[in-house]
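User: Could you check the structure of this?
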Amino acid sequence: MKNFLVKTIANAGALAVAVWLLDKITLTGGSTGRKAATLIVVAVVFGLVNLLIKPIVRVLTLPLFILTLGLFTLVVNALMLLLTSWLADKLDLSFHVEGFWTAVLGGLIVSIVSWALNAFLPDED
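Assistant: Sure, the predicted structure tokens are below.
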């Protein structure tokens, strides 16, 4: 359970950095507390998308991973971020990613920041 909490906090921090750096990734809402709560919920949705959908997409696109020497990971991360944005819209959360190329850059930012945060946060269960 502690590992899930740590990964959710790392994802929320990474998503916050992406929102801060990119104009076309938006998080609207009233107060800072409401935005933080929305980021936590979006991070949970993002974690579930990565847990359930991403492995299936990776297996189906394995030849593209091999052909591009792993660079197709950027496209898969972008698709997971776009799917999270779509699910957030369906759940009435104020998180939106506008466009594929913004999602590619956002996915890259989220990957790097969450990797860095997971390196420093404790991960034992």
